[in-house]
TrEMBL record, chain A:
Residues 564-573 have a biased composition (Basic and acidic residues). This is Cbb3-type cytochrome c oxidase subunit I. The chain crosses the membrane at residues 20-41, 62-82, 102-127, 148-169, 189-213, 233-255, 275-298, 310-332, 344-368, 380-404, 416-440, 452-474, 494-515, 599-632. It comes from Paenibacillus mendelii. Belongs to the heme-copper respiratory oxidase family. Coiled coil: none annotated. Residues 564-583 are annotated as: Disordered. Keywords: Copper, Electron transport, Heme, Iron, Membrane, Metal-binding, Respiratory chain, Transmembrane, Transmembrane helix, Transport. InterPro entries: Cyt_c_oxase-like_su1_dom, Cyt_c_oxase-like_su1_sf, Cyt_C_Oxase_1. Residues 40-558 form the Cytochrome oxidase subunit I profile domain. CDD domains: Ubiquinol_Oxidase_I.
UniProtKB/TrEMBL annotation, chain C:
Cytochrome bo(3) ubiquinol terminal oxidase is the component of the aerobic respiratory chain of E.coli that predominates when cells are grown at high aeration. Has proton pump activity across the membrane in addition to electron transfer, pumping 2 protons/electron. CDD domains: Ubiquinol_oxidase_III. It comes from the Bacteria. Belongs to the cytochrome c oxidase subunit 3 family. SUPFAM superfamilies: Cytochrome c oxidase subunit III-like (SSF81452). The chain crosses the membrane at residues 41-63, 83-102, 109-129, 149-177, 197-217. It comes from Paenibacillus mendelii. This is Cytochrome bo(3) ubiquinol oxidase subunit 3. The keyword Oxidoreductase applies.
Length: 656, 325, 219
């Protein structure tokens, strides 16, 4: 009996590597300390009432951001482990098997569990405030989206300590990801982790489309919307067209592995190439999904910190929409080398190049927003200035990659790795950092320390170039991605060492950001104005952090930069008209169902991973029960009485 | 102002890194130092497209730094400030126009090269094309020489100045066959026989690799691709014929098992082994390339009695055609 | 006072209040109406995503339908009489769900629940027929999801539609209970409209399944 348990445990828990034991201890200690702290300060009830069951978009946004920063930490550690292994030829730091797991989880986590939630976090915090709404269209669904993401991410990360991590690459090409070549449970963790959080992403897409189309402040025509709202809309439209493809693709892979179906298997008539097509039909739009909102963030920041209206508004909108449209017609450029023939390759080469046009136009428009402006280099603007050169170079190497015959030489090499890290770090990560610094005071009511922020910025920026510029040359020198080591005779050693140093510089940059946040929580002054950057859009017209109902009376927004124009009028001495009388505000009630239902999904997913139906079926039953309970609940909202609004407003604005 | 010095420092650093890397490496980076016609065309294309991109890139970068410096918020900055200026049809037309023109030019060049370097297109040469059949396995390469009736593992030798038609398939997850100095890579996919035409213009030893991830030991799938004179190649074939063991079907199944291996050579291989490997999975796919390759093989077997293909193989290939349609 | 500027064009503001809906606590009735129409709009967008889900499955089926791996082909497997019967049943259920909505618009709760019950019964018989078909295929023809790529794609596509119908059934029963409890209100009205939309959508999908899978399979 004991032997059996021991045997089971040795397979169930990941064993063998001292690194993993170390991490296990770390995770256990963290969990225990969280439990102890919550119990000691009697905060469990507070946690449940104020956060876990909250349907407030601002709180959900903050939870998204916290989760994504944790994931950034994990993905970053993965990256540094890889860079350490590659620092010198013939390194013995990581076994090939372990290395394969690490680059797989690094990719999945950075795209799906870091970039996506950070993006959703910013959507949540900013969009309702920016369009003058009191919440998103479906607050309950919003909470459900978050918890699905959260438990999906937890399921995926669990593979680190239980069962073993996936190791077939971040897109898990079959037949490598099939049962025949990946018999372990790692690949099942991959499928279920992504599937569960992916459903959440899809629902967020729907939620924000409706929010933006239907809940804008009176007077805010589509062509008067702030650019970040536009970019969110284009990103969400891309989500609703792309994510169902991912859902199906992963479901089919699951059927292959679980029921022995033959979609992508080598035998039985399966077609692995179809998976590669399908996954990129989602995967390519996915990178635009994450980069479009970054474009929106930059547009807001460039305009605010240049104290000038955004240049070429219509061009910008058109560029956003055409990028999200064309993103669906470029997927085959990820496998020009599949031998589909010259016609196919030429077609996809051209569609890919076309995307460079609107993207380039955006850069020009940002530059001409700065032109004849007055640019102040606060943190958000600094990141934007880091972004422009980085993204322009990354975009250009992207154009090089789109030249199909040349891609035969770039494909699968470090040239490609350098390219997509340049657009994803330079574009997406820098963009979201800029957004985080920009809207941080709106979220928490204080700015982040500028001095530490500058250190973080320069470390990230210099680290980035030191890390990734050498990789272009490594690629041209024939170094392929995903190799876990290389010989002395290849001559790749020096550039790899430089690259590793760059990676660690970025790591130190991240530590500075953590320090910056901790330091600012303790020492930064409260921002009492609600408008610390001299902002232009509606979110800056209310106190920070915003009250639960956001706007005591709904704003009127007839101009593009409504708040800026209002401030101009006030400066000219126009008297603001009297406030309309307050009315009771209709708000959604908190609900525990999203948390519980998502946890049930997690349980079901876990059951399917190990093929334990006795766990999976109760999990699914839990999901069904939660849905029915919700359907039968009619008491889902309440009114905030006028008195309470008056009290809240007085307290918030008393300090103005 | 601190900022400008920092910007300068960053630029200086970036330039430094770039130039050192360029000076130290570019001239002998594999992709930029091709030894064959396809590789040379791809190198030219890379350089042309880089120059075209630089036409936009350099002015934009300069503009970025100039604007960032000139319009900084600093007391006494006398440059113009126009907070409401937000639109100029003329300017916007220019920067919709310039990228469209550049991308247009690049697109034309790309399309032309795409057809010119299409991997399945035979290379023009006075010498007759030689066939090498490539199979990617977990985690090794099997090279079969149907015309010479020999086979090697993880080692490739062929005469320089002779166009080679690599026929690529896989008996394992998809890999990618890449000899950077000769030309771009091509996927090896089970159930298909893709064609890749390459040629070495001079004798030499080139680095070859499996570029697509296929699991645990995929990093060990590097191989040497050696181009020699015709005489040396013939002598090498002769030597293998006389000294190496034969590859049997059982031997192949063993070879196909997961694992790594050193270089090996075989004086012969089972008849039609390559087609067997392709057809093992052929019913899975409806890919045109496979059909063509099989037909080619049929022609070849008719033409060349010494080639490994027997009529039986031709028949199999034929069947596969049916399955494919 | 920041928000005061919001009252600058107060008249316009008030006029606009009427059509932004949802969050002005104006008339409670209007507000409910807006809330519910917001949900219906969202459901339309959900249907777009569901369209893409089915589109992907159809594409997969079309790519794989020739790969029978030596197993049974569509022609050998499909028994059209049963399929035609279930097609008629589903089409009829779409019609009866339309009748349910008409009853609702006339304010007839009993008629509404009755027609929903008929719709659900028809849906249930559709599912029963489908399950019978699957069981027959597996037991008599030994054609399982693991037999060939064609069958994997077939079971997945048709099964996904079946799963949608089954979920619709559960939902419909839940809705009938709610209607019995609450009568026709803004909320239940929206729910009925949404489910009838869903039901019509599944009907349309089935027409594609019928044409692409069954008709083209036996022809």
């Amino acid at each position: 009996m004991f032997e059996k348990i021991k045997e089971f445990a040795s397979e169930f828990f990941v064993t063998g590597d001292p690194l993993i034991y170390g991490a296990d201890v770390g995770i256990a200690l963290t969990l225990i300390s969280i439990v102890v702290v919550l119990t000691y300060f009697k905060r469990w009830g507070w946690l449940w009432r104020e956060w876990l069951t909250s349907v407030d978009h601002k709180k959900i946004g903050i939870m998204y951001i916290i989760a994504s920063l944790l994931m950034l930490f994990r993905g970053g550690v993965d990256a540094l482990l890889m860079r350490t292994q590659l620092a010198m030829p013939d390194m013995q730091f990581l076994e090939p098997e372990h290395y394969n797991q690490i680059f797989t989880t690094h990719g999945v986590i950075m795209i799906l569990f870091m970039a996506m939630p950070l993006m959703f976090g910013l959507f949540n915090i900013v969009i309702p405030l920016q369009i003058g709404a009191r919440d998103v269209a479906y607050p309950f669904l919003n909470s459900l989206s978050f918890w699905l993401f959260f438990w999906g991410a937890m399921l995926f990360n669990m593979s680190f300590v239980i069962g073993g991590s996936p190791n077939a690459g971040w897109l898990a090409y079959p037949p490598l990801s099939e049962l025949s070549h990946s018999p372990g449970v790692g690949q099942d963790f991959y499928i279920w982790g992504i599937q569960i959080s992916g459903i959440g992403s899809l629902m967020t897409g729907i939620n924000f489309i409706v929010t933006i189309l239907k809940m804008r402040a009176p007077g805010m025509k589509l062509m008067k919307m702030p650019m970040f709202t536009w970019s969110t809309l284009s990103s969400c439209i891309t989500i609703i067209f792309a994510f169902p493809i991912l859902t199906v693709t992963l479901a089919l892979l699951f059927l292959d592995r679980y029921l022995g179906a033959h979609f992508f298997t080598l035998d039985g008539g399966g077609n692995p190439m179809m998976y590669i097509n399908l996954i990129w039909m989602w995967g390519h739009p996915e990178v635009y999904i994450v980069v479009l909102p970054a474009f929106g963030i930059f547009s807001e920041i460039v305009s605010t910190f240049s104290r000038k209206k955004l240049f070429g508004y219509k061009s910008m909108v058109f560029a956003l929409m055409s990028i999200s449209f064309f993103s669906f017609f470029t997927w085959a450029h990820h496998f020009f080398t599949m031998g589909s023939g010259a016609n196919v390759n030429a077609f996809f080469a051209i569609t890919t190049m076309i995307i460079a046009i609107p993207t380039g136009v955006k850069v020009f428009n940002w530059l001409f927003t700065m032109f004849r402006g007055r640019i102040s280099y606060k943190s958000p603007m600094l990141w934007t200035m880091g972004f422009i050169p980085c993204f322009v170079v990354g975009g250009m190497t992207g154009v090089l990659l789109s030249v199909a015959p040349a891609d035969f030489q770039f494909h699968n090499s470090y040239f490609l790795i350098a390219h997509f890290h340049q657009v994803l770090i330079g574009g997406v990560a820098f963009g979201y950092f800029a957004g985080l610094y920009y809207w941080w005071p709106k979220m928490f009511g204080f700015k982040l320390n500028e001095k530490l922020g500058k250190w973080a910025f320069w470390l990230w920026n210099i680290g980035f170039y030191v890390c990734f510029m050498p990789q272009y040359f490594l690629g041209l020198d024939g170094m392929t991605r995903r190799v876990s080591s290389y010989g002395w005779d290849m001559g790749w050693g020096p550039l790899n060492l430089v690259s590793t140093i760059g990676g660690f510089l970025m790591g130190i940059g991240f530590l500075f950001q953590v320090w910056q946040i901790a330091h600012s929580i303790k020492f930064m002054e409260r921002d009492t104005t609600g408008d610390p950057w001299n902002g232009r859009t509606l979110e800056w017209s209310i106190p920070s952090p915003a009250p639960v109902y956001n706007f005591a009376t709904l704003p009127q927004a007839t101009e593009q930069d409504a708040w800026w124009e209002e401030k101009q009028r006030r400066e000219q001495g126009q008297k603001p008209a009297a406030q309309p009388p307050l009315e009771p505000i209709h708000m959604p009630r908190n609900s525990g169902i999203p948390f519980i239902k998502s946890f049930c999904w997690f349980v079901a997913g876990f059951g399917f991973v190990f093929d334990w139906l006795w766990i999976a079926i109760p999990g699914l039953a839990g999901v069904a029960i939660c849905m029915l309970i919700r359907s039968f609940t009619y008491n889902t909202d309440y009114y905030i009485p006028v008195d309470e609004i008056k009290r809240t407003e007085a307290a918030l604005r008393g300090s103005v | 102002m601190k900022m400008p010095t920092k910007w300068k420092r960053l630029t200086a650093l970036a330039t430094m890194v770039l130039t050192t890397a360029l000076l130290s490496g570019c001239s002998n980076m594999m992709v930029l130092d091709p030894k064959g016609p396809i590789g040379a065309q791809q190198r030219d294309l890379i350089l042309i497209s880089s120059i075209l991109c630089a036409v936009i890139l350099v002015p934009v970068l300069i503009m970025t730094f100039v604007i960032a410096w000139r319009y900084r918020d600093k007391p006494g900055n006398k440059s113009k400030y126009t907070p409401k200026w937000e639109h100029s049809t003329k300017l916007e037309t220019i920067w919709w126009g310039i990228p469209i023109v550049i991308i247009g030019i690049l697109a034309v060049i790309t399309v032309r090269y795409t057809y010119a370097t299409e991997p399945s297109k035979p290379l023009e040469s006075a010498n007759e094309t030689m066939v090498i059949q490539v199979t990617s396995l977990d985690w090794k390469w099997l090279f079969q020489y149907p015309e010479q009736d020999i086979a090697t593992v993880n080692y490739l030798q062929f005469p320089a100045n002779v166009p080679i038609r690599f026929e690529l398939t896989s008996d394992a997850p998809m890999n990618s066959f890449w000899i950077p100095q000769l030309g771009g890579q091509m996927y090896t996919m089970s159930g298909m026989a893709m064609k890749l035409h390459l040629q070495a213009d001079e004798p030499g030893s080139f680095f070859g690799s499996g570029a697509n991830f296929t699991g645990r030991e995929f990093g060990k799938m590097n191989f040497e691709a050696k181009a020699t004179t015709q005489e040396e190649f013939d002598a090498w074939v002769k030597q293998i014929k006389s000294e190496s063991p034969a590859l049997t079907l059982e031997g192949y199944s063993k070879l196909a098992e997961q694992g790594v291996t050193h270089e090996q050579s075989f004086s012969s291989f089972p008849e039609g082994l390559f087609n067997k490997i392709v057809n093992k999975y052929a019913s899975s796919h409806q890919h045109g390339a496979k059909t063509e390759a099989s037909t080619d093989k049929q022609e070849k077997s008719e033409k060349d009695a010494e080639a490994a293909d027997s009529t039986a193989d031709g028949q199999e290939g034929h069947d596969a055609n049916h399955a494919g349609h | 006072m920041e928000t005061t500027f919001l009252g600058r064009k107060r008249k316009r503001l008030e006029a606009a209040h009427a059509d932004i809906g949802g969050h002005s606590a104006g008339g409670s009735h209007d507000e409910h109406h807006d809330h519910e129409s917001l949900k219906t709009f969202g459901f339309w967008i959900f249907l777009i995503t569901d369209c893409i889900l089915f589109g992907t499955l159809f594409a997969t089926y079309i790519v794989l339908r020739g790969n029978t791996n030596g197993g049974p082909t569509a022609e050998e497997l499909f028994q059209m009489p049963g399929v035609i019967a279930s097609t008629f049943i589903l089409l009829t259920s779409s019609f009866t769900s339309g009748l349910a909505v008409l009853s609702m618009n006339r304010g007839n709760v009993k008629g509404l629940i009755g027609w929903l019950a008929v719709t659900a019964l028809l849906g249930a018989s559709f599912i029963t027929l489908e399950i019978t078909e699957f069981v027959h295929m597996v037991q008599a023809e030994n054609a399982t999801i693991g037999t060939s790529a064609f069958l994997s794609a077939f079971y997945t596509l048709v099964g996904t539609h079946g799963l949608h119908v089954s979920l619709g059934l559960v939902w419909m029963v839940a809705l009938m209970i709610q209607l019995a409890r609450h009568g026709i209100t803004a909320v239940t009205k929206r729910k009925v409209n949404v489910i009838s939309l869903y039901w019509h959508f599944l009907d349309v999908v089935w027409i594609f399944v019928f044409t692409i899978v069954y008709m083209m399979g036996v022809m």
